User: What shape does this take?
Amino acid sequence: MIVEIGHFALVLAFALALVQSVLPVWGARSGDARLMATAGPSALGQFLFVAITAAALIHAHVVSDFSVVNVVENSHSLKPLLYKITGVWGNHEGSMLLWVAILALFGGLVAFFGGNLPASLKANVLAVQAWIASAFYLFILSTSNPFARISPAPIEGNDLNPVLQDIGLAIHPPLLYLGYVGFSIAFSFAVAALLDGRIDAAWARWVRPWSLAAWICLTLGIAMGSYWAYYTLGWGGWWFWDPVENASFMPWLAGTALLHSAIVMEKRDALKIWTILLAILTFSLSLLGTFLVRSGVLTSVHAFATDPARGVFILAILVLFIGGSLTLFAWRAPGLKPGGLFAPISREGALVFNNLFLTVGCAIVLVGTLYPLVYEMATGAKITVGPPYFNLVFGAFIAVLLAAVPFGPMLAWKRGDLLGAAERLWFAFALAAIVTIAIWWPSTGALLTALGIGLAVWVMAGAVVEWAMRIRLLRAPLGESLSRAWGLPGATWGMTLAHFGIGMAVLGIVSESSWNEERILAMKPGEVVTIGDYQVALDGMIPRKGENYAEEAAHLSIRRGGALVTYLEPSRRMFATRRMATSQTGIATFGFSQLYIALGETDKTGASAVRLYWKPLVTLIWLGPLIMALGGLASLLDRRRRIGAPVPARKPVSKGGGPKDSGPPAPAAPMAAE
Amino acid sequence: MHPPFRSRFAAAVLAFLLTAAAALSPAYAVKPDEVLKDPVLEARARALSSELRCLVCQNQSIDDSDADLARDLRLLVRDRLKAGDTDAAVKDYLVARYGEYVLLRPRFSFGNLALWLAGPITLLAGAVAIFVARRRASNRAERPLTDDEEARLEVILAAREASLGRGEVPGSVAPENLTKL
Assistant: This one.
């Protein structure tokens, strides 16, 4: 019964979404306030119904209702409760439900917090949200129903893939989807602005917090997924340029560009048309990612062709929304009023530079991901585009962007002074140069490593120098500096933290890829192996039993200079239901570095395959994004952002005349026709 | 005993979240008995392995894969190196046997031009777009005001000052309305 209630609630959510798709737009067109006002309650209603649906499916999984196909295929009565819950979205149908649940959540949030939005904008935004939601509800109901029953019901389920039975599944997908789907708000705002034919700095003020929230979640989601892969994998890899990873990385790159261009729009009323386009593109990439991973097209073009129902449906959604929004953009954007003008060397110019390179980076990932597909369709031959390609090409372009990062905040709005900025950055540059030479000099040949570390130090030191200047560190009494630091706006803290964080991540990445130490060997109990500064002794093997698995753990003692530091117990787990093994790695963190040990199989002589890694500064790879997300949070909590109706900055009356735009497509404005 | 190890974990997790995939398990890749005695040769073998694709896996290098075929290829690479082949010769040998599909980094060739030039072309296109947009914007902007317009501007600004002085709402004359006055 509960299962049917869940199914029915999803149908009701679909019906409500259809109503919400039509009435508010109609109201906004005809100026009918009552029709526009239906948007809020229907968005909240939608969220309520989807929440009921999700609760019903979670209930079915928790009580192991094996009359539901989805539960049979992905659960087992002996599975620990946490994985019974997380297993709900550890499969196609359930994860699609999570997708629409988060979409409904965001719609509900806009309805709830959007009280200060102009009525027509709010109505249009919620209507666009409902268009997206309707399409995906229909997709779930027609091709991916999680509530399908099976009769007769089996006694036991097939269990969840053991690799997914990890705390990571509880955190990673929800965060990733909050990011992915969160950009739908920016998309809806962009489409609503195009429908309205009106856009100003206030628009950017409304969009930025939503994009920022989505970006924070996406940043954390990607970093979390990377760490999950790292500790589960058994050989210490953390990023693979896999199409599925790229699918989440592309919206992140575009979303990062969007955050930066929205600053220009908010502060200077420029780059408006480009920002709208970027908002559309960011969510389009989220949709593309959804298509890539759900349609099976990644596994093979042929897999897609043999079972096309789902793939074709999502492809249709993709074409409809991307094509539709870009058409609307091409039609309406030329009518938008362009904004202010600035010199190439200025804060705006720096942000355009940022946008250009992030867009190029995104294009490289996009082309690299789709190239094998297109190539195979065009020529029939197969080709592989893997990590060595992305590392080389993406790395080269992004290095240029990173080198420019410290300059951006040093430049003034409208017209900046590059030489002055360089002068103020001398300390950061000197520090980076010293570090580079100190690394390169003793170890000839490691020039790339030295440059990479130098680049990371440059970005981090640049962020610190800028911050120190703002609070007049060492130039004013310490008390004054502290009170200035306390008084810095959240958005400023956000920028400093985010830029410092990206530097940290680069430091971790370069250090891990250059100085990673590895030992692969067969060890017998009693044997000792040295890696890094540590001696690792295999004391013995311990067999253990868990709720739904059996495992063999190795007990290893870690010593440094003869003194015992810690113990590690990596293990191999066998899951009987699926007859699959997983690896539980043993990881010890020393400062920012880690000792990483994975256990392989034990042979007839009693020797176990052991893989040991010493990974210097590896944790920075994930701490960096954590700091970036923290920066995002600081910016999100900026007091100025919470003040009700935003006040557009006073426009200085310049001799030059009316407002201009410097972003790409800069069409003739209506005011130009005098 | 074990099902074949088909796919790497990252692909595994997301593929599983998102599509129905084959049986998966963590990979252990290079095994102790494969490691060459000569550390220089072994380092070359590892570097080469990470550039070569495991043909039966989903986008995974033979260095990371636990598939039998990946192991065979790793041993083959090591045999060729021991026989004195250069890195390039090993790659050529594998491409001759398995096609360019085996390379994780496609070669720079006519067919792959679009792939290799994607970055530079986007950068160029973006730079041109910015340049054109700026030109258009400054064409509109940097025409100096005529004397007549200067005079009218003076009047408007004076009126604005006066109205500000009287505490009226500022900004009642928007710049775009200048010409209408």
Remarks:
- Residues 201-233 of chain A form the longest helix (33 residues).
- The mean pLDDT of chain A is 88.
- Chain A has 22 helices and ten strands.
- The CA atoms of residues 118 and 649 of chain A lie 18 Å apart.
